[in-house]
Amino acid sequence: MPDDPSANDPRTIWQNQPVESSAMTLETIRRKARELHAKTRRELLGNIAAPLAVIVFSGLGAAIFNNPMQRTAFALALAWALAGQYSLHRGMWSATLPGDAALTTGLEFYRREIERRRYLFRRVLQWSFGPVFLAIGALLLPIVTGGIAERGVFRNMIPFLTLLALWIGGFFVVRMRQQRELQREIDELNDIERDNRR
Amino acid sequence: MGGSESISSGEASQDHLYRDAANQYGSALERLARAYEADPEKRRDLIQEIHFQLWRSFQRFDARCSTRTWVYRVAHHVAASHVLRERRTFSNLVNLEELETLPDKTQGQFAADQRMNLERLSVLIQQLKPLDRQVIISYLEDMDAASIGEITGLSPANVAMRVHRIKNILAQRFREGGKYA
């Protein structure tokens, strides 16, 4: 339609785009509601799998090993993981909007989402990864300290320790970059809110 | 939540509100989903999620704002959450200011073709951060500044400034038919 000036008008193009009808029947919606509950339960079970492994592993470690330092570290990891599960799942996150979402504006909602992400990362780091690192540390403690005396054993451990250090380092680098991005977003939203008040 | 025989009056009103909204804004919601998700499969899921959350939200509808504002807020919130979940990183999303300086990725290709123009428009919108996306979608849906402000939470001056920028960007990218600018 080159002769029609509205053919290049973005609003006309946008509003006249072909759409498929994807309205949901109320029965489908109710089924989706039931599925969401089931999905939340599955997520909850999936999320406790790794900490559960830490709890079992630390419990066994605390019972089996004789080194008092090692046993204390395992016991601490166990307590930390248990407390973490309570803290993380007290308000289980699910893929639903908060009830008052429609009462908030885009700006408020977006800020809330960004802040929730930042907060979630800190909590996961504190309650999920903390006990994992401590349990790994407890396991490695006698191998590393004892291994230093026996150079051969320690040398054999170097590839594993290097990989572990790289994994931990990589995890923190990626997460820190995400945190910086989140902070930049928050700064940008602060600027917009400052402009709003003018 | 079983069969239809156990539906309470609250649920009936919720169902009624949802049905009206879906009839009236169904097409607009489809367009909105297109602005947030390029992949057709994921877009279908996103539309379903928007409809589902819209239905749920009507449990709390108290007419403090218009149904249109309510519907758009819920839809934008669901879609923005989807973007944050899917992209995980913001580094490849830009705001309007940055978009002005970016080259048009599809420039020169079948400029007069309506379908291609829609594709260009969608690509342009999908580069934006959620808040600017809300403004541009509202503008394309012919909303006035007051309505855009009500949905986004931006002040009238802020909305005016952003709409002005949007018009400039669109005029640059779709210069041939520049009637809208």
Which properties best describe this structure?
heterodimer, A: 198 residues, 5 helices, B: 181 residues, mainly alpha, disordered C terminus
Radius of gyration of chain A: 26 Å
Strand count of chain A: 0
Report mean pLDDT of chain A, rounded to a whole number. 78
The outline of chain B comes out as globular
β-strand number of chain B: 0
Rg of chain B, Å, rounded: 18 Å
Can you characterise this structure?
The complex is a heterodimer of chains A (198) and B (181). With 198 residues, chain A is mainly α. In chain A, 80% of the residues lie in helices and 0% in strands. Chain A is built from 5 helices and no strands. The mean pLDDT of chain A is 78. Chain B is mainly alpha-helical. Chain B is 68% helix and 0% strand. Chain B has 8 helices and no strands. Chain B has helices spanning 9-36, 40-57, 67-87, 96-101, 114-126, 130-140, 145-152, 156-173. The longest helix of chain B has 28 residues, at 9-36. Mean pLDDT of chain B is 82; it is low at 1-5 and 176-181. At the A-B interface, helix 1, helix 2, helix 4 and helix 5 of A face helix 1, helix 2, helix 3, helix 5 and helix 6 of B.
Overview in brief:
The complex is a heterodimer of chains A (198) and B (181). Chain A has helices at 10-15, 26-64, 68-89, 106-149, 151-197.
How do the helices and strands line up, and which of them pair or pack?
The complex is a heterodimer of chains A (198) and B (181).
Chain A: H1 10-15, H2 26-64, H3 68-89, H4 106-149, H5 151-197
Helix pairs in contact in A: 2-3, 2-4, 3-4, 4-5
Chain B: H1 9-36, H2 40-57, H3 67-87, H4 96-101, H5 114-126, H6 130-140, H7 145-152, H8 156-173
Helix pairs in contact in B: 1-2, 1-3, 2-3, 3-7, 6-7, 6-8, 7-8
